[in-house]
Amino acid sequence: QVQLVESGGGLVQPGGSLRLSCAASGFTFGSYWMYWVRQAPGKGLECVSGINTGGDSTYYADSVKGRFTISRDNAKNTLYLQMDNLKPEDTAVYYCNIGTYWGQGTQVTVSS
Fold it and tell me: Which of 5, 13, 50, 81 has a 20 to 30 Å separation from 24 between CA atoms?
């Protein structure tokens, strides 16, 4: 079955960095676009980034453009999200997503 396991979240000060990882299994990882989606407290889901199968086409929400970088390692079945210059408004649970499948999420808290 499809499994998505996120890791790498935590508490960071404004301006800091984190790198999220998503270990995928149960499907042909390299054949699908992959996405990072977040949900801030009391808010709806926001797709922050996506990446194509080969890793050479990406999407970023305006709110994270220039600060976040998505990447993937198809040999390791792993999706990444490098988050730099973090802001308090980036505080959210971050999910790895493919279609109707979601990981358990990893909490990112940006606070001084």
Answer: 13
CA triple 30-26-49, angle to 5 deg = 50
What are the b/e assignments for 26-42, b being 16+ CB within 10 Å?
A: ebebeeeebbbbbeeee
Distance of alpha carbon 1 from alpha carbon 19, whole angstroms = 26
What pLDDT was estimated at residue 93? 98
Mean pLDDT of the chain: 97
% residues pLDDT > 90 (the chain) = 99
| 86: Cβ contacts below 8 Å, ≥ 6 apart | 12, 14, 15, 16, 17, 18, 67, 108, 110
- Residues 51-65: pLDDT tens digits? 999 999 999 999 999
Q: How many residues comprise the chain?
A: 112
Q: Write the CA distances from 110 to 19, 21, 91, 95, integer angstroms.
A: 13, 18, 5, 17
